[in-house]
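ping. complex inputs:
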Amino acid sequence: MTIALPKGFRFAGVHCGIKQAAGVKDMSLIVSDQPATAAGVYTQNLVFAAPVQIDRSRTPMADARFVVVNSGNANACTGPRGLADAQTMLSVAADACGCSPSQGLVMSTGVIGVFLPMEKIAAGTTAAAQSLGDDEAAFLAASDGVLTTDSSRKIAARSLAVQDSEIRLVGMAKGAGMIGPHMATMLCVIATDAALEPADAQAMLRSAVEVSFNCISVEGHTSTNDTVLLLANGAATGKPLTGSDREAFQAALVETCTEMARMIPSDGEGATHLITIDVCGAASTSDARRIAKAIAESALVKTAVAGADPNWGRIVSAAGYAGAKFDPARVDLHINDHLIYQQGSPAEFEAKVVSRSIRGQHETFLRLDLNAGDANLRFWTSDLTVDYIKFNSEYTT
Amino acid sequence: MTIALPKGFRFAGVHCGIKQAAGVKDMSLIVSDQPATAAGVYTQNLVFAAPVQIDRSRTPMADARFVVVNSGNANACTGPRGLADAQTMLSVAADACGCSPSQGLVMSTGVIGVFLPMEKIAAGTTAAAQSLGDDEAAFLAASDGVLTTDSSRKIAARSLAVQDSEIRLVGMAKGAGMIGPHMATMLCVIATDAALEPADAQAMLRSAVEVSFNCISVEGHTSTNDTVLLLANGAATGKPLTGSDREAFQAALVETCTEMARMIPSDGEGATHLITIDVCGAASTSDARRIAKAIAESALVKTAVAGADPNWGRIVSAAGYAGAKFDPARVDLHINDHLIYQQGSPAEFEAKVVSRSIRGQHETFLRLDLNAGDANLRFWTSDLTVDYIKFNSEYTT
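pong. complex structure:
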């Protein structure tokens, strides 16, 4: 495929040696040639990494020029030295890009509690600045530089016509483990050549994250580093978007975020199934979210799907402890369009048929109808397999 | 060992065929020869099983005569038919014991969403009534009849001298999966020959559960059936306990509950480690509980312990998303007495030494000092292994 990149951005991704494996990219740089509006949504973990501390204090902002990212080390739980290291990353990148450190944003992802190897970071940042490009190869290199345990690249792109111009959005994301939905749940940068006011960009990004990155979970462990950034440099449209143009942009932003968000549990560590959970007829969206999250994070639900086992009592009981209000006697449950549970009692279904529908497909669909109100929410998670356990038992030592 | 059984109780455990394997006990009966005070603590799951509905409406009560229990089928999510089946269980047991159905309590555990095989249940109840005994063999048979995926029996006993009499407590518990700490988390019956007023028995049991069964988790999935019952028949002491006698009894009750509670994650499905989590210096007990629960239920913490990996960033970050208040810069963490993290920065420690201390022992000790207040809480969980996943992927089909 050919990705239509937004105007006025350059990208780079390089290997600087934070990751052991030769040639695997571990530093990325995204540069806007002109000052861009930047918005950010961050982890709600009380224990947040140094880069989150810096970016959160800066966004929304009107004059962003670059985002510098390293993978392989999260620079989290590293105290005052970690904060100084993140500031040094910004200074080195600013020097290399010819702008001020205050015009930069920084992201890190990887192991927690280890100090950054600053010599490698500095050399990598300089090398990245020298290899910046505005072509697809450069964008893909940057997209690869943010990955950690991901088995595949996570990118999305949209184009739309507004104000007689074509606006483009591209996004790159990472995430496969330590994914819980109390925040942005991973790293993501979205670049667009639309023009947006800072406060409006922030509102639009928050709204898009709420129905995308905040609707996924791998194991519910909220990370210290989760960050979604939106850079809007206005290179395609001079004036900030308003009215129906703004609405069209917001829809494209939601699509971009949702496309990348789904990729994260789909590529969850060891995952063999992407599970889509529709909670329908809840009394409120927050009730629907609580229930979806409880189902998504139940090890018993996730292992059942991994085993293609329509063990639906685990789904209904997870809804029951979510802290939402509903009448169990009015609940219906469908698994892959098979009615399993109706008005609080078991329905007649062929367990083997349902099991085959799970086993044969990468995607499993659960739909819980509460008949308690009008709120609906869609949520995504991965199944839980032996490979997840093997992987996470052997991660650092 | 010889278990000192309380006076005036008889026990039985039999195989009636709910479980497939020949000879494996699946029905138990506990009978008090005289009316006993009964207290109960139950699951807080909105989706609760028929037996929970009945027992919750009856306790605390003054005239309990029996508890009838089946394993292998939870009688949960079974609608009105499930409720009728639980009432039939009580009627059959009451007939067999020569008392009224209203004097009974009922518990079920096993697969959710399948109707009870009532012919087997009726035959089993009658057989159990015929084999009631007041000796250790009968008690052990009853203890076995409540088990499901447990790999070992869970019992505890205490004796204490009060009012010139010896009072005895014995408890039997089950639980290895679907263990979350929002309630009693499993099935347990404690029998004592002390005399207690119903309201006082209820208060004492609730208080004991709060620091024992409500401080454990295997995977945080709150079950539909969790029930802890206390039967106090007064056969040893005529008058209800007061003053220092009551205090001594409460201490023994807490010890009994704690001893059994610890056995549950220690025997968690596939578990190779019992993890003890001490959260110290929290601003409140509820904050300490939130943090302990988040750590206990983090798949990343649990897989790290399974892999003997001192990946402490997972522990600190779990504390951070628990919803409690503390200053990350004041936190210390010890793993098996090794100082790992001090005042918000990494401490100097030998990862290999810490790893060996985890690998070599069944028990792992985590201690998080928040330095935020005076509240302390001890919590227990199991590690998360490949065998847990294998087991739970293949449970019903």
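DSSP finds eleven helices and 15 strands in chain B.
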